[in-house]
Amino acid sequence: MATAQLTSAASSISAKGFVSFEGLRASSAVKISSFSPLKQRSFRGLVVKAATAVAPKYTSLKPLGDRVLVKIKTAEEKTSGGILLPTTAQSKQQSGEVVAVGEGRTVGKNKVEIGVKTGTKVVYSKYAGTEVEFSGSNHLILKEDDIVGILDTDDVKDMKPLNDRVLIKVAEAEEKTAGGLYLTDASKEKPSIGTVVAVGPGPLDEEGNRKPLSVAPGNTVLYSKYAGNDFKGADGADYIALRASDVMAILS
């Protein structure tokens, strides 16, 4: 009898692909085949890409064009207080050391060499490039344009942005509402205002020359809310590195 009570609901599912819960009662038998339309859905955004393993017989990896090979910095296994972090809690690395570079690219009639050299420590976009397991270590092959900046220290405020990138110190979120009520961390709105700390040399034009950026260190700017890459500085402040095109206005 319990099975019979769901017959009309199951028919509705298979016919339209939508479930009608009107008059539904508890049952011990539900046919999963009714949900077959879900099999056609694409979940590409949920795919986890594993590193491509290069066989030990290959001893050299030479990037082509404007690509760069970066040896990924090992993820922190402990907190600053010495607590061991599980693998799932270790943050995805965005820094490493350049170990090989391509021959560059052609812009207009000019040949433009890669702007970073072997041995340079760099910071790159979080989801850029292709991860490769080579010579016993994890590496990343990415385009030069995916490199955010050069970082010779462990403090992000010392980053030297590349190309059209801008490094901004994010303004602190408001602690109170206009009515004087204190806000919890969860309810504080993410700021979209900050102070420019450093700027890159600018993008290349069609002749291969650098075009200077319209913002400069010290400017207070308004930027796109979901742009760029977020970092935490050694001073506890929040920083963001983004493209100059994501800066919408200069405030004064």
From TrEMBL:
A Pfam match: Cpn10
Keyword Chaperone: yes
GO MF annotations in UniProt: ATP binding; protein folding chaperone; protein-folding chaperone binding; transition metal ion binding; unfolded protein binding
GO cellular component, one term: mitochondrion
Stretches of the chain forming a coiled coil according to its record: none
Keyword annotations: Chaperone
Keyword NAD annotated: no
Highest rank taxon of the organism: Eukaryota
UniProt cross-references to Gene3D superfamilies, sorted A to Z: GroES chaperonin
Transmembrane annotation, as ranges: none
UniProt xrefs under HAMAP family: CH10 (MF_00580)
Protein family per UniProt: Belongs to the GroES chaperonin family.
Official protein name in the record: 20 kDa chaperonin, chloroplastic
Source organism: Sesamum alatum
